[in-house]
């Protein structure tokens, strides 16, 4: 088991994406699936209260090393990483897709009260949303859902990690506050720009800034 965990650490160290159990089985034919699962469980448990600079996390149905969240400011300063910004409209549409998938554009439009075609297209281009197919009804509208990149981006194991919302028919200020439970690192763009001593730009009042989790190297 000690050797297995050493091998797993090396694989996670060089991997640029989460590694699934199935991938690990292919890479480690000399170990059984139960042994691999045991090794991963022991590594996850050891990291729960660890102060190491990087931790093993279960992300998007896979496993990956991530830098310790307490060290994000220093890591960002070193990498010069810029927060990935999502406008309020994009965040609204993405949240609806996450909770209501598979969902069509007209359904997203109905909840938001405005046309969401351009917003959804940007989310698809960014890899946070994808086309799942077409609904079997007149017009055959496209069905949208989230991607594994969405899970990885927001540090989620799977969709069940999303906090439950009993009602999700309106995205007002109260609903946006609930979204902070999903995206705890969300800050207003004004705050993000103030940190960099930059004056607000277009759509500053309607934008949110989300810091993408950084991967340990």
Q: Can you walk through the features of this model?
A:
By secondary structure, the protein is an alpha+beta fold. 44% of the residues lie in helices and 16% in strands. It has a three-stranded antiparallel beta sheet. The longest helix is centred in the first third of the chain and has 15 residues, at 33-47.
Class by SSE composition: alpha+beta
**Spans of 5+ residues with little confidence (pLDDT < 50)?**
166-172, 184-217
Largest sheet: 3 strands, antiparallel
The count of β-strands is: 8
Terminal-residue CA separation: 24 Å
Q: What percent of residues are in strands?
A: 15-25%
- Helicity range: 40-55%
Rg calc? 20 Å
For the biggest β-sheet, the strand order reads 3-8-7
Q: Globular, elongated, flat, extended or rod-shaped: what is the shape?
A: globular
Write the element-wise H/E pattern from the N-terminal end onward.
Answer: HHHEEHEHEHHEEHHEHE
Mean pLDDT: 77
Instruction: Give the number of helices.
Output: 10
What's the arrangement of secondary structure elements?
Elements: H1 2-14, H2 21-27, H3 33-47, E1 54-59, E2 62-67, H4 72-79, E3 84-87, H5 88-100, E4 103-104, H6 105-112, H7 117-125, E5 129-134, E6 142-146, H8 148-153, H9 173-182, E7 187-188, H10 189-195, E8 207-210
Antiparallel strand pairs: 1-2, 3-8, 4-6, 5-6, 7-8
Helix pairs in contact: 1-3, 5-7
